[in-house]
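DM from R.C. (forwarded with permission)

"hey, sorry to bug you on a friday — could you get me a structure for this? deadline for the figure draft is monday and I only need the backbone to look sensible"
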Amino acid sequence: MEIRQPTNNNAGLSASTDKKADAAQNAASEKASATQKTGDSSTVTVTDSALKLLQIEKTLADISGFDAEKVESIKQALSDGSYTINADSIAEKLISFERDLA
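My reply, with the result:
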């Protein structure tokens, strides 16, 4: 009995998969050849959006994340039992939040 290999190495793949694989391989080889052409010199271009995001990140880093005095006063009120919870206000805010999501 003679065993033959299929002539198409991608016999198990569909035609669309073949095209995707070929396109990916071509893109990778083009990228590699572009890298070889540029040699040691490289350039990086930063978009305006990236610069704006960097500015926002710096601004947020400068802002304090919480009010330490307020946290301490709430801790004190909880420990001495003087902190009151307004369940109606919390429920109204939750309902309002849910409506805004819809």
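R.C.: lifesaver. Residues 9-18 have pLDDT under 50 and may be disordered.
me: no worries. The two ends are 68 Å apart (CA to CA).
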